[in-house]
Amino acid sequence: MEKGRELSLEGKLRQSAIRDRIGELLADPSRSHPWVIEMDPTTACNLACHDCISANLLNQGGFERERIKEMAREFKEMGVRAVVLIGGGEPMAHPEFGTLVDYFHENDIHVGVTSNGTLISRYMDQLANKCKWVRISVDAGTDETFREFRPAPNGRSMFGTVIEGMRELGKRKTGKLGYSFLVLSKTDEAGTLIATNARDIAAAAHVAKEVGCDYFEVKPSFDMMHFLVNQQVSVNDIVAEQMKQIAHLQTDTFKIISPYTLGESLDGATTQIKPYTRCLVASTRTVVTPSGVYVCPYHRGNLNMRIGDSNKQSLGEIWESARRDSVMKRLNPAIHCSFHCIRHKSNLLLEKWAAEGINEPPVDDYDFFV
């Protein structure tokens, strides 16, 4: 596979199976069916992170066990090709997590998981053998830093539990395993820096490689409205120095990744201009949560962008509803999405194809998480 291709979201749109659907999408976005679902099985979380971007959505219940299994069947009927089990809360905290992964795997629906890693041992078989990728949000390289930024409700650190789970998964996995590191800081009321996890980047990268991860990713943090958080100059300097220290760790089998948003954050950018007035990507994927179904993860919890309630409606009913049609017509990325969106380049490519036609050959299928 071409280096980095699996990390390019817009590149995935060039796959044969996806290109077949793009023609339908560009002809009439309102009739396109979802290709990818991000699903929050539950809002329950067993950590107490002070800076959680989903803090206002946590511990407010989850899907009933029978309903969540019904939804899995609805996804298949709708032609969904990939599902990301995420949160919200911790997806593995839902008692039917394993059932969901089993069902999707049996029906050739690709599964990705984003988790805090504390419950890996509970679902080792599913994670190792039935998921295309598992990304663990660790955000630390030592027990001390994990306790500072990712404490359990009792204040203790579960770093050892997470790392040992990743180590075992690293030995058994058939898909990709990633170690995610979000740059975080704490300041006092006067804005004076109290603590930052940035000093752990090098330590975390070494741990990631040692336990068998396929990649280590350093990302900027975002506020609850999804805007980039600008770190203090001293923190940015630490990040830059730590990234230099780990460059030598990269090999053909272990990647050091930093999205373009990390550079944007270090440069002080907070907003992203969108030169288009519709979101074609929102016609290909959606986010399903216990509090509702929303046009995209960036608007999770935004009632103005809620398109339905999957506790009461099937996904098919929601997708064909007047409510979704109304929200999609109202959604204007140039106005409503001034934050940095990771699918911005995908929208630019789709708009280019809409205006000029698709004048390039497709590539073989390799990853349906568009």
Strand content: 5-15%
Structural class: alpha/beta
Report the order of strands and helices: HHEHEHEHEHHEEEHEHEHEEEHHHH
Physical arrangement of strands within the biggest beta sheet: 9-8-5-4-3-2-1-10-11-12
Helix content: 25-40%
Shape: globular
Radius of gyration in whole Å, from Cα? Answer: 20 Å
Keywords: Iron, Iron-sulfur, Metal-binding, S-adenosyl-L-methionine
Domain Radical SAM core: 28-252
Protein name: Radical SAM protein
Organism: Magnetospirillum sulfuroxidans
Structural summary, described in words:
There is one protein chain. The chain is of the alpha/beta class. It is 35% helix and 14% strand. The chain has 14 helices and twelve strands. It has helices at 9-12, 16-27, 65-77, 97-106, 124-129, 143-149, 159-172, 201-210, 233-246, 260-266, 315-319, 322-330, 333-336, 344-356; strands at 36-39, 82-85, 110-115, 133-137, 176-182, 185-187, 193-196, 215-219, 255-257, 285-289, 292-294, 306-308. The chain has a ten-stranded mixed β-sheet. A two-stranded antiparallel ribbon has the order 6-7. Strand 2 (82-85), helix 4 and strand 3 form a beta-alpha-beta unit. Helix 8 (201-210) packs parallel to helix 9 (233-246). It is globular and about 50 Å long. It starts with 8 loop residues before the first helix and ends in a 14-residue tail after the last helix. The mean pLDDT is 93.
